[in-house]
Every structure is written in structure tokens, then in C-alpha cells.
Specification:
Elements lengths: L12 H8 L9 E4 L2 E4 L5 H18 L5 E4 L5 E4 L2 E3 L3 E5 L17 E6 L5 H13 L4 E6 L4 E6 L7 E5 L4 E4 L3 E7 L6
Parallel strand pairs: 7-8
Antiparallel strand pairs: 1-2, 3-6, 4-5, 6-7, 8-9, 9-10, 11-12
Length: 190
């Protein structure tokens, strides 16, 4: 006898946005991952400080050059109809999103930064980076606080994801997304 398949109901991005706006969800943070709403846990003190340091350095470059917008962990991005993410820090250019209006950004960010907690599954972290890239994000920074290491993912490579590791002595760049932007990895970690 064959066991019946387990059905997991999924949501569209529109249904998800209605779900997160419910009063009982007002003080919760969710992402939509492959159609399934997932409640996000609170970040550690170090992780939130790291995220804001990166956001600060982005803004020091973005604001004077009027390049676009830097968002924090409350900024949702609709990657497609099955995925709505809230990166810890993100940049979206004015050429891709000229005006701020509405709740979530209707497209993937140009740069997404995820501060990775020790409890996060490494395979799911890579899947998430891949979803960002396949929906239009050009750079994904995966920041590992304990190791003081950053993996930069971008389109390319045999798996459509080119990944390069940066250590404490290295310097990150904004690539073609933020030409001229540089950030020493040592300046990210408190």
C-alpha cells in the first residue's frame, strides 16, 4: 500500500502580503520561501550590529551619489510569486526602482546581505542565495560572524552561482552594481 502524499498548502506573494498584514502578525517577521510562510527568529546582538555597519558603509557611498536605496531587515523584496525575502541589508538602484511606494519592493534587490546564524542550514543558505541570483540580484553577501568570513555569490559558474570567499584581510567591492565602492572585511566586524 502506498502512503498518501502529504500536502503542504502554499501561498502566493499576494496571499502572503495579506497574511503578514493580519493584526496577529503585526510584531512578527516572516519570509515566503517556496510558497511557505516562515517566521524569522530574532537576530543576535552581534548580527544586528554587523548588518547596520554594512548598511552604514553602503549609505556612505549610495546617498552622496544618489544611486538608490539601502534597506534593513524590515525591507521585504518580492523575488517572484513564491518567494518574498527580508535580507538583513539590501541595496536597490534607482534605475531599477525609481520611487519608494507600497510595502514590499516588487523586485529582487541588486545586492542582498544575509548575516548567517550558526543554526541556519548551509544548504538552505545556498538555495536562498541561488534564488536571489536567479531572480535578478547581482551580488549576495553571506556573512559568517563567528568565522569573520564573507562568501560573495554572483551569477556565473557551472551551477549558475559563482562563489568567492573573503577573509578578514580582504576587501569587498560593489562590482558593477556599485562601481568604486570598497569595504574592508575587518571594518564589518565589531
Amino acid at each position: 500500500m502506498i502512503a498518501p502524499a502529504i500536502f503542504t498548502p502554499t501561498m502566493t506573494a499576494d496571499e502572503f502580503m495579506a497574511f503578514v498584514m493580519l493584526p496577529e502578525n503585526a510584531h512578527k517577521h516572516f519570509e515566503l520561501i517556496e510558497g511557505v510562510p516562515v517566521e524569522m527568529t530574532s537576530s543576535s546582538q552581534k548580527n544586528t550590529v554587523i548588518a547596520m555597519r554594512i548598511g552604514y558603509f553602503f549609505n556612505v557611498w549610495v546617498i552622496p551619489n544618489d544611486l538608490g536605496y539601502v534597506s534593513g531587515a524590515d525591507g521585504g523584496y518580492r523575488l517572484n510569486d513564491n518567494n518574498v525575502y527580508q535580507p538583513d541589508v539590501a541595496f536597490i538602484s534607482k534605475t531599477r526602482h525609481a520611487e519608494l511606494s507600497g510595502v514590499e519592493f516588487p523586485i529582487a534587490p541588486d545586492i542582498a546581505v544575509e548575516i548567517i546564524s550558526p543554526s541556519e542550514d548551509s544548504l538552505e543558505v545556498l538555495r536562498k542565495a541561488g534564488r536571489y541570483i536567479t531572480t535578478g540580484t547581482q551580488l549576495v553577501w553571506l556573512v559568517y560572524e563567528k568565522e569573520k568570513t564573507i562568501f560573495v555569490c554572483q551569477p556565473g559558474g557551472s551551477s549558475n552561482l559563482d562563489i568567492k570567499e573573503y577573509g578578514i584581510q580582504d576587501t569587498l567591492t560593489g562590482g558593477a552594481v556599485l562601481p568604486g565602492f570598497t569595504l574592508a572585511v575587518r571594518d564589518i566586524f565589531p
